[in-house]
Specification:
Helices cover 77% and strands 0% of the residues. It has 190 residues and is mainly α.
Amino acid sequence: MRTRDRIIDAAEQAIREFGIAGATTKRIAHLAGCSEALLYKHFAGKEALFLAVLLERLPALAPALARLRLSAGQGDLAAHLTEFALMALEFYRKAAGIASGVLADPSLMAGFRGMLAEREAGPHLPIRALAEILRAEQRGGRLDEVMDADAAAAMLMGACFHRANLSYFVELPDEDGLWAAAIVRTLVRK
């Protein structure tokens, strides 16, 4: 395994075990079996390392969006959107540890925002992509043409984000599939 990959794996492990505040570069380097200097040879700072964990280790929304885009106009739209919602829910659950830690640290958040802007990345992009897919389905007559695709995409992603966060505070019934199907049914009514 490449050193960079070992460092990212160690950072993910440190975040899971100790939270963002406890995921120090010293601890990450120790878990990766390298020096802090080597860690900084691969990453400019903690922000870059945490962004790499988010982009490279968590279940990505891009493949789920690509599958949804490819299925536009074909098959069971509600089933495709439900599958996407379940992937978004999994992403938000796994990203919560990093996201909450980044939000709690103003300097880390500032660095993270700068990196997202530099890369033209951010949490708004999956919502934008989902809205485009919903518009394509509207043009194909599979969704109500009056529906606001931007609002529907934001509501679907927001519902997934909310459920993921709730699961940290209360015990939710193990019914993610039923929940996602109900949310989608509400959005795709014609």
